[in-house]
């Protein structure tokens, strides 16, 4: 079972997305801010990390850079939930994110993106 770590500051969205991911068979850890994401990621070494672009403490893009610096986390795909895709594409490339998921997205779309990211990571 793959571990998915989701960082999202809005509890309702975080819970809805987590429910969809759990129903698809993933073990889900959730965090409400960037510091919690870092703490959970270092403790659990998730297979995929999903980060909302509006987290407190650090921007989602800054958080991607921090996570990609850690040896145990740099191989885990990081997906960004972002609202402005045209602006986010360049930021994603610069930060090292492995993909962008447009907000708002359905739970099914998020599950599909996580599966795609896991398949791509296995091919590396």
Characterize the structure shown:
- 35% of the residues are buried.
- The chain has a single domain (3-103), classed as Response regulator (Rossmann fold).
- By secondary structure, the protein is α/β, with parallel strands linked by helices.
- It is globular and about 30 Å long.
- The protein has 5 helices and 5 strands, in the order βαβαβαβαβα.
- A 5-stranded parallel β-sheet has the order 2-1-3-4-5, with helices on both faces.
What topology does this entry show?
Blueprint: E1 3-7, H1 11-23, E2 27-31, H2 34-44, E3 48-52, H3 60-69, E4 78-82, H4 85-95, E5 99-102, H5 107-123
Parallel strand pairs: 1-2, 1-3, 3-4, 4-5
Helix pairs in contact: 1-5
| The top level CATH class name | Alpha Beta
Please state how the strands of the largest beta sheet are arranged side by side: 2-1-3-4-5
Helix content: 40-55%
Q: Provide the domain count.
A: 1
Mean pLDDT: 89
Uncertain regions spanning at least 5 consecutive residues: none
| Dominant shape | globular
**What name does CATH use for the topology?**
Rossmann fold
SS content category = alpha/beta
**How many extended strands?**
5
- Alpha plus pi helix count: 5
Within CATH, the superfamily carries the name Response regulator
SSE succession: EHEHEHEHEH
Largest sheet: 5 strands, parallel
What is the CA-based Rg, rounded?
Answer: 13 Å
Q: Which oligomeric state applies? A: single chain
Q: In angstroms, what separates the terminal alpha carbons?
A: 19 Å
Which CATH architecture is right? 3-Layer(aba) Sandwich
Beta-strand content estimate: 15-25%
């Amino acid at each position: 079972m793959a571990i998915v770590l989701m960082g999202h500051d809005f509890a309702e969205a975080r819970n809805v997305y987590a429910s969809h991911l759990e129903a698809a068979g993933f073990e889900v850890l959730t965090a409400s801010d960037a510091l919690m994401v870092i703490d959970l990621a270092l403790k659990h070494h998730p297979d995929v990390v999903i980060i909302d672009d509006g987290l407190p403490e650090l921007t989602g893009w800054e958080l991607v850079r921090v996570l990609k610096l850690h040896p145990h986390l740099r191989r885990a795909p990081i997906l960004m939930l972002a609202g402005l895709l045209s602006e986010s594409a360049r930021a994603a490339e610069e930060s090292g994110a492995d993909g962008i998921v447009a907000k708002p997205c359905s739970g099914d779309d998020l599950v599909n993106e996580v599966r795609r990211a896991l398949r791509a990571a296995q091919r590396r």
